[in-house]
Sequence to fold (309 residues):
Amino acid sequence: MSELQFLKEARLDGRVEWRVPMAEMTTLRVGGPADAVVFAASEEDVRTVARLCREHGAPLAVVGRGSNLLVRDGGLRGVVLCLGKDFARIAVRGEEIFAQAGAALGALALAARDAGLAGLEFAAGIPGSVGGAAAMNAGAYGGEIAQVLRSARVLQPDGEIVDMENADLAFGYRTSALQAPGRICLGARFVLQRGDREEISGRMADLAARRREKQPLQFPSAGSFFKRPEGYFAGRLIEEAGLKGAHVGGAQVSSLHAGFLINTGGATAGDFLTLMERVQRAVYEREGVRLEPEVRILGQDGAEEVGRE
Fold:
């Protein structure tokens, strides 16, 4: 990894680890090793790593808490920039909350509840980070990030840090302008409404109970594996194709909710990719609908360089 020598010489607030198994950094619990992982602790860390990778031509992938990520068994070449627990400050001011990109979405929802602020109840059970949720406009049970996010703090490809307003973020179903190449979400500001804490807690408890009843929370997964096709529900299409419980190795279509692909133990990324293709093929042959993965798929099976994030 002599080509990443620049990381050893960089002055960072966070830490660098080498040859980190991505299975340890994803909720699916699969994925080969990353050459280097930088655990950012400041905005300057993010800016420095992005600049150095650009200058040295090193691939850069940005990850949060790994809840919507599938890394292939060959791992990731270059640098993984992790915006996680060391980049997770949450601050409440009046009816606004600012959260750094690495803050857990559930922690953000709890902070809102504790401050008597309503509007983030839907997010309490989504196992992701603020940055990832903002970039993909995460949502559940009728709520989505675009409804409550006022602005995002963003590192632009040229190294400038700017605040992008909601109207400039081009939010859509599981997409936003934050997904543009070279753009990194550093945090987000949310505007909520005053509410009764007990009522907010009650709504969160109700949604949590619905999740426990309908989702396979006891197994490692990446949440809903496929995007919802227009006019359909992915889980229903998969179930109607007779694939509930289907498996490849340790990867399985959940028998509780067919929209979830779960790790029943010992699965590889290859197992998930093969199962994904099997599901896509079966649904297309039966309904003529192409299912697209909602999870980000990074890395490769061999040792060739990954594309830039």
User: Anything to note?
Assistant: Helices lie at 5-9, 43-56, 105-114, 130-136, 197-214, 234-240, 269-287. Residues 172 and 292 are 15 Å apart (CA to CA). The chain has a mean pLDDT of 94.
